[in-house]
Structure formats: C-alpha cells, structure tokens
Amino acid sequence: MKSYGDLYVELKGLSPEEFGDRAEAAATDGWKRDRSKDDEIGRIGVTNKPWFTFTLTGHHSLPPTFLFITEKMPNLLFVPNVISPARDRLEYDEYNSILRSFRDSVLSRIQPPDIIDVRLSNTSINLASQLPERVYKSLVTFSNAANKNTGSSHPLDRERWLDFLVEIVDSGVALSPETLTRWLVEEGKWNNDEASQLAEEYEFGRELLERRKQAS
Amino acid sequence: MPTSRTLPDIAHEVSHRALPALFIDTCAALDVIRCAARNQPQVVPIVQQVVEATAHSELLLYGSSVLLEEAARNRTVVEGLARREAVRIDEAINVHRTTATALGVTYPHAPGFTHESIVPSLISLHDQLLNTCVHAVTDTTIQVAAFKRAGIRRRPAKGGGGVNDCLMFEEFRHVAHAAPDPKALILLTVNTEDFVDKDRPGRPIHSEISSDLAGTKARVCLSWPEAAAAVLSAARLARI
Description:
The structure holds two protein chains of two kinds.
Chain A: E1 6-11, H1 16-26, E2 31-33, H2 35-43, E3 51-56, E4 65-73, E5 76-78, E6 82-83, H3 92-105, E7 116-121, H4 127-130, H5 133-145, H6 155-171, H7 177-186, H8 192-215
Antiparallel strand pairs in A: 1-5, 1-7, 2-3, 3-4, 4-5, 4-6
Chain B: E1 3-5, H1 7-16, E2 20-24, H2 26-34, H3 43-55, E3 60-63, H4 67-103, H5 119-132, E4 134-136, H6 140-151, H7 163-178, E5 184-188, H8 192-195, H9 207-210, E6 218-221, H10 224-231, H11 234-238
Helix pairs in contact in B: 1-7, 2-4, 2-5, 3-5, 6-7
C-alpha cells in the first residue's frame, strides 16, 4: 500500500541556515530555492523555526512543485509536505518521486558530502510486516472469504471478523481505522462504503474490547 | 453575476447584521449536482430554502475566494457522475420494461421521461447557489497563511496537497476571529477525508481545525442537514 514518504536531513555540525545556503548552491535539474516564499512566510510570523522553500519547474515527468523543509528537532530537518499548483493533491508515486528527485538533485550534491545524512522512508505501508503474523492472517482470512456486498453480516463472515478484532486487541498492536479502510479498499478490493462501515465497527469493537481488558 | 467582498467587510457584515452566516465549500456546492446519485435527495429542498432565506435577508451566504474556480474545474466530473448514475437507472428500467412486456405484465411508465433529464435542473440549482453566495476577495496575507498551513501539513491539508482547502479554511477562520459574536457562523464542508479525525472515536472534527476556531462561536458542519439546522429558521426547516 502506497504512502507519502518521509524525508529527513540530519545536520552534522552545520546550522540550518548554512544548510539552506549550501542546498541552494547545490540545486540543479530544475530545483531552485524560493527565498521570496521564505520571506513571505517569515513576514506573517507563523513560525520561528527555520523554513526553506524549494521549487521544481521544467521537469520532464514531474509537475511544478513547492517542497518545504523545516526543523523537526535540533540538528534534524524534515520535509513536512510537497504541493503542486498543478494538482489538488499529488499522487503517492508523484510525491515520492519528487522527494527522490530532491534527494538526488539537491541534497546529494551538497558539499562536502559528509556534512549531512539523508533518510527517505515510509514510502509504503506493508501490513504483512507491520502486524503480527496471526493478526494479519486473520484479517486476510476474513477479507478473502467474506461476501463483499454484505460486509460482516453473514454468520461465518461475522465469526471471522470478530476473530480478527479479538486478535488485534490481544496483540496490542496499533492499526488506525483510516489505514484499515485503505487496506480493505486497495488490497482487499472492498468498495468504499463497506470498508468505511467495517472501519467503524473496528473502531467501536476495539474500544469496547480495550475497555473490557482494562477492567479485568 | 456573483458579488464579491473583502474578508474585513464580510466580518463586519457578520458582526453587525445579527443574521446567521453560512460559508460553503466546493464539495458542498457540488453535492447539489450529485445529490440524487449519492442518495441525498434532501439536499435539494435544503438548498432551495438556503437560497430563499438569503434572498429574504434571513441568512448571510458566503463562498471562499476559490469557490467559483474550483466548482467550475470539478463540475464536468461531478456532472458526469450524476449523468452516469441516472443513465444506469434508465437502462435498468428499460430492462424491466422489456421483461414485463414479454411477460404480458402491465408496466406503467411515463414515455419519454429519463432520469438523466433531472441533471440539468440540479446544475441550474447549483449555479443559483453559487450566484447567491457573496464570494471572498483574495487576500494576499491569508493566501500566504494558507500556503504555510499546507506546507506544514496542518488540517485540512494532508500529504501531497490541500492548498485550496487551507485557503478556504483560513478565510473562514479569519472571519470567525474578526467577528467574535455572530448569531451563528457555520462552515459547511462535506470533505470528511480532510476535516475529520478518522482515527478518534466518534470521528470528530480534527483537533487542528477545532483548536484554530477555539474562542470563537464558529463551528464546522459536515452535511447540508446539519448546517440547515444551525442556520435556518424553524419555519424554513418545516418546509424541507
């Protein structure tokens, strides 16, 4: 399942301002620092953290882009978002391709190369590896066997659905209803309405079972 | 032709006219066109009452500075959805009619009527709604704030975008803080993906949205019926 990736830049003895200057000097392949945007945002006083805006234009396959970098914690910068004036919302693949382009055409060219560490992660969500095996199996078993027009209402489907709910609460592992909905739609091939209904049942069932667990 | 007003003027009007005020987002406006396809027939009488209430100076109706452009951009897709759903019903009815005829069973119907023929009337109501709205004039400072909001991925922004949603919300937020004691001040959005926290029990409005409206009387409604209950008189609600 695709996801919007996280791009982190660890600074090794370099201030955020020096990073901004060096990244600006290194930028190539259509990437440029947009100091006017940084100034505009500085003037409205929304943040006192370092803030750098980079733009991408004229790329052969990627849309025009604004990419932002700010401070996550001391010596660690990150990209909170990437937006495009050409799109309401970037697709996952486009977004992650833009992060890779920025990494390769700007960050990798910063000199000297050992003053930053770059980490690009979480470009996908894999429930098979993120959930305990038993929990993942019970979810897949339910999803594969269920009648996708009736959700969890058939007695056998209901039984398998409840098994999954018990398994996941017993395991203590976190799984957001939003991620479950996406998995059901994208991997399980459920329609949106049924997936949302199941996610609501999951949310309620989980809350109830956790309350019971705390009380006992 | 739709009228436009600056955000300070809108805030002044909301403060001084002692009328309930309703801001609508693009999805809510487009819901008029797709209401039958989405099984929401109640949207039509509600929107009719909203338009009438505005014309009779019982309600202040506003749209963001990007509403007209966004509605125009997305209209073809939404109209396509509405027409497809209507044609699907027409085709299903024809199948049943043919079957009934073969069986010799009476099948009453209105010759020449198609469900698709309802769509232009829905588009007309949608256009009437947009024309009734007072549209906010673009404000550079609010645009920058919206850009920043999208940049830091603060709701309604999510990964990969959301600038226009942020602009619409920042304009509403500006009015909410500049008009501290409105009779009622409602933002209607049906964009639950971006405004709702789906990971919290009960799926409330996301805390990044509600905290930005804290200290104001403004609130966000997620459906036409919810917004209507907040801004229309009892007499108008009885007509829906």
